[in-house]
């Protein structure tokens, strides 16, 4: 097998990666995939990419994706496929995993810094979107002040 | 700029008759736009209205006539199919006579199509023609028509918005006629009182000032007690009673002892609430009574309808704007199907077959020899289902799905299998079509033009927007072609639905002024009666005179009796059946609908938390529901919106009617769908 | 045209017309969600917060707010990373790139509005529970003395949630006597 000069090795800094969807969504050939199962988000990607684009590297919000050039004379090394895994955070209410632990922590930090004030609580962050909606529904109904219209 | 042409059509689902504009591009419906300027619905459209489009290009749509063979369905040409149908019908006629045939017409078909079904049956020599109104508002026809002269809603739905008190009895308008519910909200915002009598706390009951959660089948007791209070406290409209009704003394006597405490014991509703309801309804300047399946689908359906009408009449709440009696119809054209006489005992225009003048009139109108039309009513839907395979050898079922909708449906299924000839005309291979010898592909609502009548008695024209798929054809064409093959072509000289409408105008006086041209340009249709071309139609009935012979409304006494099958030691719960908003009737359309079916895919049964605890049943578990007729498995929905001792299941799934009882109202022949004694069984292996 | 939708949820009958209409209008997942509190419905959609958490966490500044359009997604900048969806306090924004190429967030039916049409959910709602006019929910309930809740976001009004809440409550403290 002869590699073309444009082959690059895909290198993921697993410590940096927060487990978002950017790289998977960006690949024009849909070669980066992920699956949430058994409390883990498992990513799979090709070990090498012959394409000319830099999409996955550019979109990563934490610069965890690198594309390193490969010496064309090097014997075809492995791995042909790389995988990495991140633990998922479970909803504090219903227990369903809904995002990675790292994303959840990142959000807490970022939102406290950007919008923090004594008026806000961020106690919704550990909840999944469905439970956030149901909680908001309860809050909205409770906030309605109705003047009872008693029957004669 | 949109390249698509919008075509204004009438929604095929319920009897509110909303408009939706179909966007037609290259001969296909590409989408919809809201009919914002329609006076009927102002653009409003419920989830089913949106989903109607999914029927048009559905992959399961029948596109060719299919004949049953040993190896399965074989597509055949229309010629061959029609020849086969004519031949099989002819054989039955020759061997057994015309009463061995039965026709199930469709409340989803147009007025023109229903007119043709009943005409075909009658020209062939039988009154065995009926449709699903038998299962829903037959008791309105038998109960209300003799009282007011007409068994139809007295006011348009929009009048609900002008009412000061809305009393819902066995009607879940919010879920089943969503667009009409905005009138109820308008009334509430104006300060109207909302009273809801329903065993369940339905979305309709969410805004009720008073919810009366009565036990299923005890409405007669509630209404009798309310009448008792009204008479006793002098809350009746004496002037109205004296001038416009007769029979009050017998009514008054019948409710002399039906006091609220007696009713409280029977219904489970506190006596105080019964009194309040009676006072609120009777004292309101303009009150409306809205009733539906909770009233009609009983052995005592006719009598319960009469009690509702009694209540409206003694308080003078009929015949004025904002005051009316609303039997809310279900199907988009069940009102029209009734108007057109697709009923075993009624000729078009509600003329009884027993009336010799009516028979002479139609024999002349149709060119039949004198004496052709029989004087005895034919078989109703429920009787056809019982007689199938026995007295009835051939059944032509058009847009009807009795395997799912008939009470004690397993028996019906067995009976249908014994038919010599079952012809089904439909959009899909429904549960009933699976048993057919011949299936003909039908056009859906947007693929044919015709008029349909909604629950306001409003006749609306819905034009053809696109061609049907494959070789599917509109019912009117299938019926006309079949008639020709049967040698009856001279009676069916129609080239288009407008031709049929012109004949309808001549024989149904209430439709006299409904020319195709007028209907096509009427923004909200025309409400019958509309006897002449320049008559504006009649939105509000009985304003000066009731349609009875003497112009007076007739009051009936109220006599309470228990439902036929009460809970007992073996079957300790009452099973009641009904509808949910995301499905429609037999589910033939909605269960195939991606947007609706996905959100409501499974059969569930609502169980009160106390009952669930007693049976050890948890929310979401599969449970078995058993009656004397059959068993079904469903998912348990444990909810406080139903009372203890009562369980609720939707009938949109084939399993449900295997459990209901085939006991009929003697006059209306409508089944007791709303009550059955059942037990709940926790299924093994579904957790602790 | 206000830059968010008002929901008079006391009018809602949980008919799901809004979700169906939204999916039909956009050809992808519904941007409006029927949530339930004790069996009673509350339709929820993007509140178009002035100072939104979603915009705060977006690594590409692909979410921006303006008076006419509310919170707008600048599609060319968006990488579909999905952080915004996890940052939304109301769970009304979703990103599932493998299932759907779009970010599913209410945009007040921007395409429809460009053609002079009102949002699909507003037009379809059988009981007129959703409106894009500020007055309707308020005037409607005055006669009965019941006060609706408005779905203004606590993330409006520049960082101060309590200020928004106070303003919201004051607006509805006034009601006409019967």
From TrEMBL, chain A:
Domain 4Fe-4S ferredoxin-type, first and last residues per copy: 8-37, 40-70
Taxonomic superkingdom: Bacteria
Pfam families: Fer4_7
One Gene Ontology molecular-function label: iron-sulfur cluster binding
Residues in the signal sequence: none
InterPro entries from the UniProt entry: 4Fe4S_Fe-S-bd, 4Fe4S_Fe_S_CS
Keyword annotations of the record: Iron, Iron-sulfur, Metal-binding
Protein name: 4Fe-4S ferredoxin-type domain-containing protein
Native organism: Desulfacinum infernum
TrEMBL record, chain B:
Superkingdom to which the source organism belongs: Bacteria
BP GO terms, sorted: formate metabolic process; respiratory electron transport chain
Keywords attached to this entry: 4Fe-4S, Iron, Iron-sulfur, Metal-binding
Record organism: Desulfacinum infernum
GO cellular component annotations of the record: membrane
Cross-referenced PANTHER family: NADH-QUINONE OXIDOREDUCTASE SUBUNIT G (PTHR43105:SF10), RESPIRATORY NITRATE REDUCTASE (PTHR43105)
Protein name per its UniProtKB record: Formate dehydrogenase subunit alpha
4Fe-4S Mo/W bis-MGD-type domain sequence ranges: 4-60
GO MF annotation: an example: NADH dehydrogenase activity
TrEMBL record, chain C:
GO molecular function terms attached to this record: 4 iron, 4 sulfur cluster binding; metal ion binding
Protein name: Ferredoxin
Gene3D superfamilies hit by this protein: 3.30.70.20
Classification via InterPro entries: 4Fe4S_Fe-S-bd, 4Fe4S_Fe_S_CS, ET_IronSulfur_Cluster-Binding
Coiled-coil region(s): none
Keywords associated with the record: 4Fe-4S, Iron, Iron-sulfur, Metal-binding
Signal peptide (from-to): none
Residue span(s) of domain 4Fe-4S ferredoxin-type: 70-98
Region feature (Disordered): 154-178
Originating species: Desulfacinum infernum
Lineage: Bacteria, Pseudomonadati, Thermodesulfobacteriota, Syntrophobacteria, Syntrophobacterales
Biased composition (Basic and acidic residues): 167-178
PANTHER family linked: PROTEIN NRFC, PROTEIN NRFC HOMOLOG
């Amino acid at each position: 097998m002869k590699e073309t000069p444009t082959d690059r090795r895909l290198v993921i800094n697993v410590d940096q990666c927060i487990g978002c969807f950017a790289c998977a969504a960006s690949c024009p050939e849909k070669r980066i995939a992920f699956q949430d199962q058994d409390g883990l988000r498992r990513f799979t990607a090709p070990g090498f990419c012959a394409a000319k684009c830099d999409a996955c590297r550019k979109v990563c919000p934490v610069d965890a994706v690198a594309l390193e050039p490969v010496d064309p004379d090097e014997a075809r090394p492995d791995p042909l496929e790389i995988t990495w895994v991140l633990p998922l955070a479970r909803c504090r209410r219903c227990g369903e995993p809904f995002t990675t632990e790292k994303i959840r922590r990142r959000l807490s930090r970022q939102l406290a810094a950007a919008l923090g004030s004594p008026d806000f609580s961020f106690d919704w962050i550990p909840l999944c979107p469905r439970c956030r909606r149901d909680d908001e529904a309860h809050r909205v109904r409770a906030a309605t002040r109705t003047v009872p219209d008693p029957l004669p | 700029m949109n390249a698509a042409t919008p075509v204004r059509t009438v929604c095929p689902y319920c009897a509110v008759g909303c408009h939706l504009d179909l966007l037609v591009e290259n001969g296909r419906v590409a989408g919809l736009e809201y009919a914002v300027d329609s006076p009927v619905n102002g653009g409003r459209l419920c989830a089913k209205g949106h989903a109607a489009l999914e029927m048009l290009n559905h992959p399961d749509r029948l596109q060719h006539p299919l004949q049953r063979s040993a190896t399965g369905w074989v597509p055949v040409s229309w010629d061959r199919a029609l020849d086969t149908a004519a031949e099989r019908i002819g054989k039955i006629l020759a061997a057994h006579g015309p009463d061995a045939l039965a026709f199930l017409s469709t409340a989803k078909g147009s007025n023109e199509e229903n007119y043709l079904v009943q005409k075909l049956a009658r020209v062939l020599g039988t009154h065995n023609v009926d449709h699903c109104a038998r299962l829903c508002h037959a008791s309105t026809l038998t109960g209300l028509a003799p009282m007011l002269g007409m068994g139809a809603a007295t006011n348009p739905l929009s009048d609900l918005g002008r009412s000061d008190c809305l009393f819902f009895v066995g009607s879940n308008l919010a879920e089943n006629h969503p667009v009409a519910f905005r009138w109820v909200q308008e009334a509430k915002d104006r300060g109207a009182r909302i009273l809801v009598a329903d065993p369940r706390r339905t979305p309709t009951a969410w805004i009720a000032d008073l919810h009366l959660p009565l036990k299923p089948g005890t409405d007669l007791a509630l209404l009798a007690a309310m009448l008792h209070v009204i008479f006793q406290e002098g809350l009746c409209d004496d002037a109205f009673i004296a001038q416009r009704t007769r029979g009050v003394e017998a009514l008054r006597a019948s409710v002399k002892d039906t006091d609220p405490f007696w009713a409280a014991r029977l219904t489970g509703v506190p006596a105080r609430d019964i009194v309040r309801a009676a006072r609120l309804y009777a004292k309101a300047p303009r009150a409306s009574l809205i009733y539906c399946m909770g009233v009609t689908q009983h052995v005592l359906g006719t009598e319960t309808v009469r009690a509702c009408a009694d209540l409206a009449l003694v308080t003078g709440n009929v015949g004025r704007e904002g005051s009316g009696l609303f039997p809310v119809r279900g199907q988009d054209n069940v009102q029209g199907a009734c108007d057109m006489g697709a009923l075993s005992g009624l000729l078009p225009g509600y003329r009884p077959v027993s009336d010799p003048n009516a028979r002479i009139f139609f024999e002349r109108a149709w060119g039949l020899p004198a004496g052709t039309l029989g004087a005895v009513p034919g078989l109703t839907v429920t009787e056809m289902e019982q007689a199938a395979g026995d007295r009835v050898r051939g059944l032509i079922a058009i847009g009807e799905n009795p395997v799912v909708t008939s009470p004690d449906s397993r028996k019906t299924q067995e009976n249908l299998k014994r038919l010599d000839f079952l012809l089904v005309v439909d959009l899909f291979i429904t549960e009933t079509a699976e048993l057919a010898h011949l299936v003909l592909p039908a056009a859906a609502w947007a693929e044919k033009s015709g008029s349909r009548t909604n629950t306001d008695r409003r006749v609306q024209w819905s034009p053809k927007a696109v061609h049907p798929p494959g070789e599917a054809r509109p019912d009117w064409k299938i019926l006309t072609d079949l008639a020709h093959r049967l040698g009856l072509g001279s009676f069916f000289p129609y080239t288009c639905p407008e031709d049929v409408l012109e004949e309808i105008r001549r024989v149904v006086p209430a439709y006299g002024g409904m020319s195709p041209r007028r209907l096509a340009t009427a923004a909200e249709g025309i409400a019958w009666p509309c006897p002449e071309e320049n008559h504006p139609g009649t939105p509000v009935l009985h304003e000066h005179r009731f349609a009875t012979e003497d112009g007076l409304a007739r009051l009936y006494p109220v006599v309470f009796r228990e439902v036929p099958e009460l809970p007992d030691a073996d079957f300790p719960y009452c099973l009641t059946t009904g509808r949910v908003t995301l499905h429609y009737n037999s589910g033939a359309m909605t269960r195939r609908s991606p947007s609706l079916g996905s959100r409501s895919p499974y059969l569930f049964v609502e169980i009160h938390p106390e009952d669930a605890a007693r049976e050890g049943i948890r929310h979401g578990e599969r449970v078995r529901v058993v009656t004397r007729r059959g068993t079904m498995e469903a998912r348990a929905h444990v909810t406080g919106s139903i009372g203890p001792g009562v369980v609720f299941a939707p009938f949109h799934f084939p399993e449900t009617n295997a459990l209901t009882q085939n006991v009929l109202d003697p006059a209306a022949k409508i089944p007791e769908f709303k009550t059955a004694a059942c037990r709940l069984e926790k299924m093994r292996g579904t957790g602790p | 045209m206000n830059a968010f939708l008002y929901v008079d949820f006391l009018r809602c009958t949980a008919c799901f017309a809004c979700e169906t209409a939204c999916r039909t209008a956009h050809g992808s997942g519904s941007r409006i969600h029927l949530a339930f509190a004790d069996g009673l419905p509350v339709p929820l959609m993007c509140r178009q917060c002035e100072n939104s958490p979603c915009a705060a966490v977006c690594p590409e500044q692909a979410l921006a707010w303006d008076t006419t359009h509310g919170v707008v997604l600048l599609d060319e900048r968006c990488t579909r990373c999905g952080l915004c969806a996890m940052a939304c306090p109301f769970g009304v924004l979703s990103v599932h790139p493998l299932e759907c190429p779009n970010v599913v967030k209410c945009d007040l039916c921007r395409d429809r509005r460009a053609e002079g049409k009102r949002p699909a959910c507003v037009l379809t709602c059988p009981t007129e529970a959703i409106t894009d006019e500020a007055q309707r929910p308020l005037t409607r309930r005055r006669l009965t003395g019941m006060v609706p809740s408005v779905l203004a976001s606590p993330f409006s009004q520049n960082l101060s949630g309590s200020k928004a809440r106070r303003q919201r409550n004051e607006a509805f403290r006034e009601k006409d006597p019967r």
